[in-house]
Amino acid sequence: MTVPAERPLDEVAARTSFARFRVASIVEGIALLVLVGIMTMRYVVFGGDAWFTSTSPFWEQVSSVWSPIHGLIYMVYVVLGFDLWMKMRWGLPRMLLLMFFGVVPVLSFFGERWTHQRVESDLARRPTIQDQERV
Question: What pTM does this model have?
Answer without folding.
Answer: 0.85
